[in-house]
Amino acid sequence: MKKVIMGSIVFLTGVLSLAVIVSGAMVHDWTIDGQHSVFWNLSRYGVVPILYGLTAIAVLGLIIAVWGLFEKK
Q1: Going by C-beta distance under 8 Å and a sequence separation of 6 or more, which residues neighbour residue 7?
Q2: What digits encode the pLDDT tens for the residues 27-42?
Q3: Residue 46: how many other CB atoms lie within 10 Å
């Protein structure tokens, strides 16, 4: 049960961090071919590696939570 709670907290932290970074990148009104591009904005700021790191944290948290669900005591 401890792994499920810890994994859920890590997953939630990663997802919320991703939401903050993506919404922060879309504050300015930059467009490519008339459409907004989150990845272009993030690459312009140089935070694409941070985006990948936060995605890895969210996936790791999900894996820990699922592992805790199926672990037998």
Answers
A1: 61, 62, 63, 64, 65, 66, 67, 68
A2: 776 666 777 677 878 8
A3: 8
